[in-house]
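Field reference: sequence -> structure
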Amino acid sequence: MRALRECNVDLKFIGRGGPQMRAIAGEKFTDWLNDAAVLGLWEVLKKYGYFREQFHQVLAEIEKAKPNAVVLIDYPGFNLRLARALWKQSAKRKIIYYISPQVWAWNRGRIKKMARFLDLMLCIFPFEADLYNKSGLRTLFVGHPMVERLRARKIDIERDPNLIGLFPGSRPREVRKIFPILVETARELCKQKPSLHFEIAAASESLASEISRTLTDARMRQDLFQVVTGETAATMQRASFGIIASGSATLEAAYFRLPFVLVYKVAWPTYLAARLVVEVKYLGMPNVLADKEVAPEFIQHRARPDVIAKTVLQLINNPTARDRMISEFDRIVAKLGEGGASEKAARAIVEELSAT
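Structure field:
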């Protein structure tokens, strides 16, 4: 949105998103981040009424405003349905999707259907463009916005050989499921290597408080742990190893060349439902991009503290294996583009509008 503002085009924004988007768009833009940020099938079902109401409100708002284009960003469960409904509502309106829904992971058959009601797909991974273009959906690879964001956060600091970064996720339910596993893993690690200490990246002050309470309840030595908020990038550059919940943090770790293992756990109904539809071999995006397990993954029933700790210690004690992982990270990050993703996406949107 900032890049669109800089394109010298007279634009007005309406819609839904987070507080940073609202700060750019103005008061007519709705901040629904806290209400819409749910994870997993069960959580979505519990809020079905809310999403159904929002869906119809959004349709009505778009019909009233009659915008030249609708840009849908990620959030496929909501946005793919919205795209189809908007296409039926008016074929004249441009429908652009930015940050491809990961249908290549769980339902590739939907791509041809998407080509009917989307005018343009802007994707952040190179293999997506080939996949979508082959299916008749005009697609451009614009690069990953993470690259330009993290480039500005690089710091000149020496890594602490005894510091392990813990990254339990950004959503409360995610943290409640995963952080206790990380705590017990830390306990196992300290038994074998007492010199270790841990820095925990909290996504918000409220999650930091919850993490601190969990440490107290687990009777962990407080001097071994430091909880920091808003310093994920710095922690990834200070630590020598990471234990990370699946998500964008895995790519960030690859960018900062932090060796890590991936840990993830969700409600069993969500996990079982995902197993029925997911078509990719790996959960972590670095592994997906490499098409092999560069960073070990411990998912659901495999997320056992003793097994995770054993693997972490093996990697800590094996510099060759860590260097090999870092070399793979360099190749993975090179695939994400050289930066300027936001500007490329903005130019593509403006060009699409100009072609109307």
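Note: The mean pLDDT is 89.
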